[in-house]
Every structure is written in structure tokens, then in C-alpha cells.
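Sorry, explain these C-alpha cells?

***
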Amino acid sequence: MFELAFEYYGLVVLLSTATIQLSSSFAGLKGIMFIHNPKANCIMALFVMVPCLGAIATWNWRNPTGIIEGGQQFFLFMLAIVSAIALNIIISSIANHRRFKTADTPLEDGFEALKSRTYLQAIMARLRNFKWRG
């Protein structure tokens, strides 16, 4: 059971990470992309997505006796999604830290901020500009 749960978790983490990378390439959110070139980032995401989708599509053929129950599957799915988001934030912030270190552009709202900064840089800039009430 543990092997199946770990396999399911790993597949969902990889697929979610690749989905975030693919969508960031199309949206031009350079602060969250792993690779600086959007086309290369898109290709990398597709190379990860296709085998993961194949593994998920053939799950019942490869694992006829091992079934993850609904509640366990929901928990693993949510844990994997949160892990994929955290993984994207950490890797992209490390990979792009030097690239956006001298971002002199004004901080935009929402996802638009990720076009010129990493996620952690945008959070830090937002906290610096936040006026504390006291």
C-alpha cells in the first residue's frame, strides 16, 4: 500500500509542477519559471507531463490489486498539490534570484508581479510597502 501511495503522490507532484510551469510559460510569468526561455520551459514541462499522464492513465492495468481508497486518495492529492506549489516557489525563487535581484519596476498587483520578480521577492516587496496599523 505504501508503494502505491508514494507512486500516486509522486505522479501528482510531478504533473502539478509541470502544469504550473506550462501555464507560467504561456502567461509570461518569468518569475516562477524554472528555465528562462518560455519555449524551453514549455518543452521541459511537456516532457514531464506526458509520461505522468501515461502512468496515471494505465494505473488500473499496472496495479490491479492495489487500490487507494477515496479518502486516502483525496488526502494524497491535496498534499501533492500543496507540495508542488511549494516546490515551484522554492525552485523558481532560487533559480531566478540573481536575475531579478535589481528589479526597479514598481510592484504590480496579483500574478502580474511574477512577470518581473520571483514569488519570494514579490512577498518581501509587498511586506516592505505594507503600512502596519497600530
